[in-house]
Amino acid sequence: MESIVSLCRRRGFIFQSSEIYSGINGFFDYGPMGVELRRNIKDAWWKDFVQRRDDIVGLDSSIIHHPKTWEASGHVDNFTDPLVDCKVSKQRYRADQLFFAPVVVDGRTAGYVSALESDNVEAELREAAEKLKRKKAIQGELGPVRPREFTEATPEEIRLIPSPATGEPGSLTPPRSFNMMFETQAGALRDGSGLVYLRPETAQGIFINFKNVVDSGRSKIPFGIAQIGKAFRNEINPRNFIFRSREFEQMEIEYFISPDEDWQSRHREWIDTGNSWLESIGIPASALSEYTHPKEKLSHYSKGTVDIMYAFPFGVQELWGFAARGDFDLMQHQKFSGKSMEIFDEASKKKFIPHVIEPSVGVDRILLAVLCSAYAEEEVGGEKRTILKFSPRVAPIKVAVFPLVKNKPELVRLAEELYRKLQRHYNVFFDTSGAVGRRYRRMDEAGTPYCVTFDFDSLEDGSFTLRERDTMEQKRMNEEDLFRLLDETVY
Ligand code: GAP
């Protein structure tokens, strides 16, 4: 992860937000390369799920909705995480990400240990338990160390569990509900009457516009409404780089189906579609898995949720959620607004409120998975080569064009001519500086799939050498071949 974060900074993909003021936790800025990568991911999603489908239309709703939206959706009451404070260090933890275990020696409890959620929380707790036993010079056999969530701790245990910040017990508070919606004021009054929220998901913008979209022409079930946009969550513990941040972007689809339809098979179809789409942007199937939420842990709106998981360097984590939301949201908005959400289905000649399947994914999370999948280090001729093996679909720069030398004006002109032609269709790069090998290396690090070099033979027939990033193979081709190749790989 460290190598990826450092490459992201060095090559202008991602910066900590407000870095000159020591940064602000949970916020990130995308640099020149990052902004292209991010845009390409969103464009690929929009093309495949909106423009290339007959059954899905797009939407771009405002970020701030009427505050009743969030009462109806359940976010005012339920969009909370259990928060634990350490009164001494002033650190805050999510109770469901804080684990503890009693240290049992010869059947007697000798104290407690704690650790933050990680892939090896059990091993960490065991190590801490052994340390405690040594510190207290207790003889006897250490019993099994079984991690428990802080949410399950009794008041007595809470007093005895050490804070992860200080290592001492007595400073942790019982968990309390913390609402993650950011609040702000609309209008000049500061008396609370203008209280509004920054949306924590783009989904509700779709539900409150459902009738508008239906009335403007789209009503044949099944159909979907898709939206890409910013979402904000005041996460207690933003972490793992851009994986969990406080400002991020979502790509969401609400796919409306008849209440009579078998939602399970439609749900499965969407998960499969999600998996294939991820592969099309360079995330290998081998890094993906699925997690079915147990019934007792489902969100308040869900009848069933499956997540596509990705093996990040910091553990296997949720990438893309697929929830079957039933008619929960439309029903709630009908109730709170007093406006009917029913539609008339021509096919069945029935009136009903549709049910919905919701594929919902974060742009930033996909971008991180794309980066992690693409990052590679290789030994070439005794030197380390760092490459980002981006799929040409999402690569920030598609082609780099080089004249072999910069002091041969006809060569530079030829190369520049091709560069200008490519630039009308793709993000491309022109570079004349340094040895061509060094230019290739720079483009490898930027993830550029193709480099084109004009050499002395080019002066004869206009052909050039195309060097492929991953194989480093070089072949001779002309302009027509190159445009064909790009047409096949950048779609
Ligand atoms: N509308 C449903 C919804 O928002 P969610 O599981 O809370 O469901 C959906 O979020 C997706 O949004 C997640 O799978 C993840 O990709 C992304 N996401 C959620 N919280 C995030 C955060 N704090 N930072 C980055 N991405 C986040």
Question: Could you outline the blueprint of secondary structure elements for this entry?
Answer:
Elements: H1 2-10, E1 14-16, E2 28-30, H2 32-51, E3 56-59, H3 68-73, H4 75-78, E4 80-85, E5 92-94, E6 98-105, E7 108-116, H5 121-135, E8 148-149, H6 155-160, E9 176-179, E10 183-185, E11 195-197, H7 203-208, H8 210-215, E12 223-232, E13 247-257, H9 263-280, E14 288-292, E15 304-312, E16 315-326, H10 328-337, E17 343-345, E18 350-352, E19 355-362, H11 363-374, E20 375-380, E21 383-388, E22 399-403, H12 409-423, E23 428-430, H13 436-446, E24 450-454, H14 458-461, E25 464-468, E26 474-477, H15 479-489
Parallel strand pairs: 3-12, 22-23, 22-24
Antiparallel strand pairs: 1-2, 4-5, 4-9, 6-7, 6-8, 10-11, 12-13, 13-19, 14-15, 15-16, 16-19, 17-18, 20-21, 24-25, 25-26
Helix pairs in contact: 2-11
The chain binds glycyl-adenosine-5'-phosphate.
